[in-house]
Specification:
By secondary structure, this protein is of the alpha/beta class. It is about 45% helix and about 15% strand. It binds ligand LWAPGFLV. This is L-fuconate dehydratase.
């Protein structure tokens, strides 16, 4: 058996992509954001590399790059086998260091950096095994999966024994779900029709095009003028009808009291969910909004740890669990969240609105179906049509469904040409932009 590759170096790239000028509800990103990512490549003493990234939105990416370089000291010099023999211990080592915890714990830039590195290890592992990450997970044993999870702060909600019971219950029928996914793919929804800044005509055109492509679930940004939110929502309803699903996303725009009023005011749209109506840290606030409006609440893209998700589930704050591939510390922590959601009977509808998030999260949604929930009921994976051309294995969407990749790895390797063009600030795009500024 070939020796396990030893990680010799972690290369990092600050990537910034000038995107079409869209905007979303929260003011923080209403100023012409550029999609961006802190990207890392784990070089090894073999020909195989591991690739990972953490998504950012235009500002501060260099801080994530610095944090990745800082944390990579835990990885460089070790063999893949040393790390993957106990992935749970590795995850705790990367996120639980007594000194790094003062930069968190398990939140902020240091946690985003851990996400990029953990995901890069999974990419490397899957490449060595010559499988996509979703299949690497699918072919593990329940015991191997549980060993990837650090239960320290969640065992009051999900114990290792409970996780094992869920996995062992679903193991006998695993093969049929793998076959189904390979044939039918994962149901998805589109966010691409309803960004702020789109004219009515553009929204109508995009809705018509999406319907023709087979989309049945549509997400609209809200959080602007109340009357205009409702007007735009009714416009989308005119185009998609009432049998298709419409979700609304406020991107943390309101305080709790206003969120209750604004969510209630949008009930004529029959929203399938209201997403991020208030601060993602406000667990009790989301419970109150859910209780007082009766509208399904979706949250997760800015929830920084499994502990946040645990509390949202325990407090009755959440109807839809929107995991994000690199907001928490990568695959390991998301396995914990997905299994917790399965225990609480909460559907996982992953967030994927950014650079590489779609490419990443299809693997995690497959894990949920194969091993955790064993159901696709009320489960849709987000899709946005941004920047897939920069990836060697871009997402493949057919009739509103993700068709799973068979290429080895985590689908996150970025083309060399894109790295050369959009590395910041030395990439050819930014070099020419600064000369013309
Ligand atoms: C701004 C990003 O594209 C994205 O994260 C927006 C968002 O909130 C989403 O749900 O997607």
């Amino acid at each position: 058996m070939a020796a396990s590759p030893r990680i010799t170096r972690c290369r990092t790239v600050d990537l910034r992509f000038p995107t079409s000028r869209f905007s979303i509800g929260s003011d923080a990103v209403n100023k012409d954001p550029d999609y961006s990512a802190a990207y890392c490549v784990l070089e090894t003493d073999s020909s195989v590399e591991g690739h990972g990234l953490t998504f950012t939105l235009g500002r501060g990416t260099e801080l994530c790059v610095m944090a990745i370089e800082f944390l990579s000291r835990f990885i460089v010099g070790r063999t893949l086998e040393e790390i993957t023999t106990d992935m749970g211990a590795f995850a705790r080592e990367l996120t639980g260091d007594t000194q790094f915890r003062w930069l968190g714990p398990e939140k902020g830039v240091i946690h985003l950096a851990a996400a990029a590195l953990v995901n890069a290890i999974w990419d490397l592992w899957a490449r060595v095994e010559n499988k996509p990450v979703w299949l690497l997970l699918a072919e593990m044993t329940p015991e191997q999966i549980v060993k990837c999870i650090d239960f320290r702060y969640i065992d009051d909600a999900l114990s290792p024994e409970e996780a094992l019971a869920i996995l062992r219950h679903n193991e006998p029928t695993r093969a049929e779900r793998i076959a189904f996914l390979r044939e039918k793919g994962l149901p998805a929804y589109t966010t691409s029709v309803g960004w702020f800044g789109f004219s009515d005509e553009k929204i109508r055109r995009l809705c018509k095009e999406a319907l023709a492509e087979g989309w049945t679930h549509f997400k609209l940004k809200v959080g602007g003028d109340p009357a205009d939110d409702l007007r735009r929502g009714l416009l989308v309803r005119e185009e998609i009808g009432w049998e298709n699903k419409l979700m609304v996303d406020a991107n943390q725009k309101w305080g709790v009291l206003e969120a209750i009023d604004r969510t209630t005011a949008l009930k004529p749209l029959q929203p399938w969910w209201m997403e991020e109506p208030t601060s993602p840290d406000d667990i009790l606030g989301h419970a109150r909004i859910r209780r007082e409006t009766g509208v399904r609440i979706a949250i997760g893209e800015h929830c920084h740890s499994k502990v946040m998700f645990k509390q949202l589930m325990q407090a009755g704050s959440i109807d839809v669990c929107q995991i994000d591939s690199c907001r928490v510390a990568g695959v390991n922590e998301n396995l914990a969240i997905i299994l917790m959601a399965a225990k609480f009977g909460i559907p996982v509808c992953p967030h994927a609105g950014g650079v590489g998030l779609c490419e990443y999260v299809q693997h995690l949604a497959a894990f949920d179906y194969i091993w955790a929930s064993a159901s696709l009921k009320d489960r849709v994976v987000e899709f946005v049509d941004h920047l897939h051309e920069h990836f060697l294995v871009p997402t493949r969407i057919e009739r509103g469904r993700y068709m799973l990749p068979e290429a080895a790895g985590y689908s996150i390797e970025i083309r060399k040409e894109s790295l050369q063009e959009y590395a910041f600030p030395q990439g050819t795009y930014w070099a020419s932009a600064s000369t013309t500024a």
